[in-house]
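Purpose: get a first structural picture of the assembly so the mutagenesis plan has something to point at.
Setup: two entries, given in the order below. No constraints added.
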Amino acid sequence: MKLVLRWFLIPILLLTSAVALAVEPDEVLSDPALEARARALSAELRCLVCQNQSIDDSNAPLARDLRILVRERIAAGDTDEQVKRFLVERYGSFVLLKPPFDARTLLLWLTPLVVLIGAGVFLVRYIRASGTVPAENSRALTKEEEEKLRALLAEEKFQKSAET
Amino acid sequence: MIVETGHFALVLALAVAVLQAILPAWGAHVRDERLMAVGPPAAVTQLVLVVGAFLALTYAYVVSDFSVENVYLNSHSAKPLLYRISGVWGNHEGSMLLWVLMLALFGAAVAVFGHRLPQTLRANVLAVQGAVAVAFMLFILLTSNPFSRLAPAPAEGLGLNPILQDPALAFHPPFLYAGYVGFSIAFAFAIAALIEGRVDAAWARWVRPWTLAAWMMLTLGISMGSWWAYYELGWGGWWFWDPVENASFMPWLAGTALLHSAVVMEKREALKIWTLLLAILTFSLSLMGAFLVRSGVLTSVHAFAVDPARGVFILGILVLFIGGALALFALRVGELRQGGLFAPISREGSLVLNNLLLTTACATVLVGTLYPLALEALTGDKISVGSPYFNMTFGPLMLPLLVALPFGPFLAWKRGDLVAAAQRLWLAAVTTLLVTMAVYAVVHRGPWLAPLGIALGVWVMTGSLAELASRSKLGQAPLPESWRRLKGLPRSAFGTAVAHFGVGMMVVGIIGTSAYQSERILVMKPGDQAEIAGYTLTFKGAAPQRGPNYREEVGVFEVTRDGQPVTSLMPSKRLYDAPPQPTTEAGIHVSWRGDLYAVLGDAQSNTEGGYAVRLYFNPLVRLIWLGAVVMFLGGLLSLSDRRLRVGAPKRARMQTSPMPAE
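Result (structure tokens, whole complex):
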């Protein structure tokens, strides 16, 4: 089904730009440390006109503009957080591929944990329950059966003590 | 005329499918053998008719009959034959026809190879299969007809998107769809079991080969797509967590869980209810994938609202089948009896852990994929959920799964001994430790946790070998004795070990390439040299060339290593004639260490003869797809195990059949 993504999306990307590469040589910062930060940051920022693509991967002109913008901010001395905040102010949190943890995304972030813990607790109880009660014919013993069982166990104990 | 015949065949197939959906089920209900006997011939007839329809459309593509709108929109007479054929499913209408073809294929396979199934079970399975076919044939005929004509007929077609003109992508959809649709058999078996109110170990044994076959196809289909993305999209990535990929990944995760829980059900009669639910959910996720991709809802909620006909139709199918199945499940679940006691530390327990983690992972991918859509539809707020989210949530879930994986096969049913299992894994553990230390000693860059990731993959690989070694008493018994034992092991034991080994390979590949990729972005003039990962590349310049239906600019790079010539890479930029779109073709040199990968960018106006160039070295990246192929082979081994074929008396005949029996 990925096929279809490429089918709908790639033409849009390609038609908007004849450029085949994402990060172009002329964008690269001369300081490798800053450039590395820019790349890492770019991978977390969404190319707003693309489908779930980061600006680091995209060759759309807008992605290029954003990459240059990120590098300008970094070169100007912004921290990663400041760059993100700057972009969020401009474009909303849509620009972040890792959505912030807030009221709107509570369910998104908590689901894996809730499912894991919920299902885990259920399973532990299920295994315990099926371990103590026979699964087939799981009814309690009647009074008579309990008497019988007690008698049998007492007998066994008696025999064992007789053997030793 | 041929095209009209194809259209007519599809309509007939619909009629047959309607009969197949109603008569056998009714027959099973009233115990009428004649009605139940309608199922198999109906399924085979449906297949013949759908194949006819499919061939008719293929014919129109091969002869470039542009009076057919679908051919006009998606083909071109100058296209090579392979892509004229793959163009059939390279578009919405044709791909839905492929989907229906796969459905009919699986249905007919059950009809032909399922002759030893209980009569009512087979009747109900074929009826459910028929019902699913009815829904999708109606969808094609009412909203997405590939056979409609254009008058007057255009002289030339618009052409297939060049990015789809690629061998891997030509075969990607058939495998993917075989996987999706194959899970409909497990679904149909689950519904049939619920209708009859009876489900036992034999049921699990019948359903397992079908699930396995579907899973194998999906594994291969997904990895083909990933491989294609890797070399075609030109940035060396292989998985992007985009919603369309997730749509295919979710049924894979659920299907993998289903494979494992069905084992428990077959061997121990435990987890029955869960396995049934999982069978329903797996196909539901396949249907949801179809909805997500086909309705356009992914592009934006608004695109969906503008042209909702198709989307609403598939949504209807979705609600009908998923809702109906879950309602039936809720109704009947109380009547099913669970069996099989087991302690937490046991084979069952390990498979439950597998299911817990895979299901949670699947739920995570589901929420991550749908959340932005739901949020936008409900509040209008737009957020993005991309790979950072999935890496943060999915990754940690895989960690315990991979750590625990080698233990599973060493634990006994009912009550296992973890210490004994650990003892039999000591050699694997030592090997893993040595490899980890070696990686730390040799590689001094990349994230400090990465060697541990590699170790995880090695652990899974050595752990699966340890299982075979232990079962053949290698090292404990004389070698000939071990060899005899090894040969005597059931194929499914090899299947498990091989498939798990493939998982380990994939993990090593993923970690290796993610953590240690090298990249260079630069402008190169003819004669310039660049170094990457020990290779020296000399740019010889770029020259225009002409292909069958494109023009291209091919760059030539001579590659040397320690002064010795290695290869020459020829990445190119193509411009297709129709439609006139550019694509990049990476130049890739494959070695056992990894891939050297070169992409040619644009000519630089400010430097004479200079081109933007992107070079990568992707260590171990091949292991990702090789791992998938090994997993596929593991499945194949397991499928060939004769224990999966119930009813040994008729074995001789079954061995010649290409498809799994029941």
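The two ends of chain B are 39 Å apart (CA to CA).
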